[in-house]
Every structure is written in C-alpha cells, then in structure tokens.
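User: Can you model how zinc ion sits in this protein?
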Amino acid sequence: MTEICEFRIVYEFAHLLFRTDEGKDLGQISKSIKVVRLTKEDPRFYQIPIIGNQIRERYNKSFFFGWGIIRKYSKKELEATTLLHLKIKTVFEPAGEECGTIYDETAVCEVCGANRKQLSPLNLKQGSVPKKDIARTIAGEVVVSEKFAAACKQRGLKGLALEPIIFDKGMSNFFQLTALSQIELSHNTIAGINPFDLSTSSEGEIYKCPKGHTIGLNLLSEPCILNSQSIGEYDFFASKQKVSVKRGLLRPEPIYFCSQAFRKMIEEEKLTGFEFEIANIE
Ligand SMILES: [Zn+2]
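Assistant: Here's the modeled complex, given as structure tokens:
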C-alpha cells in the first residue's frame, strides 16, 4: 500500500515549502490554491504544521485548507483482505431534511448530534442526485441506483436494506441504502481534525463523544475493527461509532464496510462511485 497526502496549499505561501513548478494549480476554479501531493516519507510533510503555525502567528491565516489521504493498493492486497472499507466519495445537496424527510430528534445526543431516527422514506429533490451508482447527501444519507439494487438482489447479498426514495415530483428510481449489521471500531482507528491535529474538540464542538458515539472529526487511518461473527455472515456493515459532528445539516456518519462478494459485484457490474480500502480486523 502506498499512502499519499494531498494538501490544498494557500498559493501565496506555497513558495515557503514547495518549488514553483511543483503541484498543480486549480486553474480557473481557484487561483489562490495549489494542490500538492506528498508521502509521509518526504521530510517536508512534517514541515507543513510548523510553517502553518508560523503563518498563523504572523498573519493569522492558514497554510492549507483542504486535504485528503489517498491509499493505493495492489490487486493482490485488495483481494487478500476479508473486509473492505467502502468509501463513497460523491456528496450532494440538498439533504433529506431539506426535502421533507421526517426525523425524530428526541433521542439525539446533545454532545455530538448522533442517533436521530428517520421516520419517513427518504425524500430528495428531483435532478439533484449525481449520475453515479452510489452517492451520499451532506447529511450522510446513502443513495444507490436501480442497477445497484437489482445486482444486490440478483446476487443475494446480505446485510443491506434498500428503501425507495421519493422525489418532490413523485417516486424516484433510486434507493436509500442502510446497513442491517453494525461492527465495532477498535481504539487503533485514528481520527482527527487533519493529519497533524488529533484534537478531539475545537471551537465549542466535541468530536470524540464521551458517550462513545463518535471517534473524531475525520478518519485518518485505515479503519481497525473488532472481530465479530457477523463479518463472515453479511456483505455490508456500518461502524457502530461514527465520525464527523453535528454542524448545520452535517451529522455524524458511520464508516461503511463490505465483503469481497460485494466488491466483486461492483467490479463485474461496472458500478460507479465506489472506492475500496483495506479494513483491519483485530
Ligand atoms: Zn454522543
């Protein structure tokens, strides 16, 4: 596995650590950002937070905004693992709450915002769902295509629930995907604000709920799972503990996992929007 970190460096400060011909500009989207990729073996990786602190102290500005961790696996590595971490990269708006989906908030955790209960079918806006076989709303509602639903049914995949989604103008041909089985993250799963900041709270928000609902704002490591019998029985799972926080429409979200049979289906049916990483079972 190769792990690469991508940073959206503020252009005016990029020269403090990077060559001018390094990375790529975001072109017309934003001339103020330079996208740089580097591994943790690159000594400059550890310079980023140091320079970041200097810039903050001197100018009260940030050195980087967005960031991401890209893990590349060989075919052999992906085929050898029992459990895969399923990543849903495409996010869209509006969320269900904005389109008339009814939620019961009475049992919601007052610290982290986890545990709201969906009472109605997922309502979404027609034309807002991306043309992928899987995507999620900014509130973490997972939407899949008819093609995905049919393939799951045909292959008899277990552990997933698919409920029809309703559009403002009537029934849709999309489904809401939820997991019927939860598995537990181990304490070896690392979460934090960004790769340099593992803080569990900031500016009044608490990212690691004392009641155990959430583990942090963002997942930073490959997920580590406590072994459970259900791993061999089902094809799709959600983590018991969640990441992220209640902020506007955002809600804590589980991490999703799947079996090799699930991944095989995605590859053979050429379903889009799915990314896989390795999940470690302890
Ligand atoms: Zn909580």
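A couple of observations from the model: The chain has two domains: 2-72, 77-281. The pocket of zinc ion is lined by residues 109, 111-112, 114, 209, 211, 213 (CB under 6 Å).
User: Helpful, thanks.
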